[in-house]
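Good day; I would like, with your permission, to put a structural problem before you. I would ask you to consider whether the tokens describe a fold that such a sequence might reasonably adopt. The full record is reproduced below for your convenience:
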Amino acid sequence: MTEALVDTRYEPLKHAGDPVRFRAEVRGWLETRSRGWTDRMTDVTEDEYAAFQKEWFQELSSVGLATAHWPLQWGGAGLSHQNQVIINEEVARTGAPRPSLYTISLNHVPATLFAFGTQDQRDRYVKGVQESGEIWCQGFSEPNAGSDLASLRTRAARQGDVYVVSGQKIWSSMAMHARYCLLLARTDFEAKKHAGISYFILDLESPGVTVRPIRQATGRSEFCEIFLDEVEIPVANLIGEENEGWKVAQSTLSAERGLMIFELSERLMKDMNRQLADGRRSRAAWLADDELRRDFMEHYAAMLALRRMVASMLAEVEANPEMGASLAPVYIKLHFAVLIHAYTAFLVKVDGLDAQYRHPEIFGGGQHTGNRMIDYIWSYAWTISGGTNEIMRNIISERGLGLPR
């Protein structure tokens, strides 16, 4: 990716009305522009990966793919749901990098601001993502308010034209590279838990903000703590009404609409198919082992079930974009978390002692870095992110099965 950014051989958005031509254009561009990226991102630092992500965002923007999923009123291409599925499918199948540094910027920020933001906020911050590639993070969870987010304690007190905010946030992915943060803080401590919460735009360069990366068991530090010590946030940065932040947060949390898990499930399918093909070609010992072969086929069947569940959810989203009451995302998240943990454990078992040694790994390679032990350790993150497995099971029990609390 050292050539000129604009590649006139491919203009995928011009062919959005023809799914076959559109897919071919997207695939051709991704294969051309992302070729060799895994070599570049093998054993790099987190700062080097962040620089690569910024470059990749510019690449995607050069042909309109970065914000292709945005509606026309957001300044996007207004592509159909079918075309959005095609893009994610081809990103997975070509093994192209995901714009993971921009997950919040490209999904949560525009969805939140167009549902509840002022026109000034939309003009400034949505355009800031599209035109300048501004990076955002999310400031929701706290040390004692993760799965039970409504119990958050970060305090915001209005003083004239500003809110003075103090508290702590945790698990803010890539916050060390972000300029802005979608922040939840309590503005009324007398109200019930879900009430009294307000939603803000936080400039992370404000005085009193400290961002501290959290070193993980994998050796990486994607997650961060954010400390707020009497930070002043202009009243103009309040999103929606004061004390209505919980309602605003629902638009944030429903922004992604299942396409991310679709892309991840397609990557998982590709990885499993490659594992099987390589095993057959090399006559791998695990294929001759009854127990390991059975384990693999159980994971493969679970992967096929996951893809069917995701396909069903995407069809439901296309028919009903709101999809507010559906439990499908809960089932899918739990299924994926269990599967990715079991499958990476299988890969460690297959590689035996070799999996215990330090091997080069691809930074940002989806869920599969090439380093089996790192992939296995990282799989534990899926038991927490997006709602812990325990919370997901509670939701299914109460809302799906009608069991008592």
